[in-house]
Amino acid sequence: MAYPPNSTAAYALEAAISANKLDRSKITLLPLRPAEMVAAWKRGDIDAGYVWAPFAQELESSGGHQVFATKDLQKDGYLIYNNYVVRKAFAEQYPGSSERLPARASAESRRIQERPGKRCRHRCERSGRTCHHRCQYAGRAGVPNAC
After folding, report:
1. Which of 37, 88, 91, 141 is the most exposed place for a label (fewest CB within 10 A)?
2. 5 vs 76: CA distance, rounded Å
3. How far apart are CA 27 and CA 42, in angstroms?
4. With bands split at pLDDT 50, 70 and 90, how would you rate the model's confidence at 77?
5. Taking phi first (over 0 means left), then psi (-120 to 50 degrees means alpha), and beta for anything else, what does residue 2 get?
6. Rounded to whole angstroms, how far apart are CA atoms 40 and 20?
């Protein structure tokens, strides 16, 4: 299984292995950059890859079939986002918003880690999800005894 190292895809792959209770010892992981992964796929050097668009579509158009997507991890409490994108016109109309969004997400993550029980319950109430679901996420994020 090829994957891009030091990326959210690497983290998501580990989460997918864990969430699906796969035997890690039976999976050979091969760190490759996305373009290298596509080349290895086309040569027949790898049997599987975990990567983002447009590279995933290149694997699919060369005989691959998607069996899992990062969004599938949400049901197990993993919330993984790869990027924030705004149009140039939006960025010009709302100067500074492009910088505030990632900063806000980082600040919320820190608040959850600093006061997990309180933040967890607050987020549960706002989202309508059960506290159990949010606490599972917080626990996986390294926050013990979240609720």
Report:
1. 88
2. 22
3. 20
4. confident
5. beta
6. 26
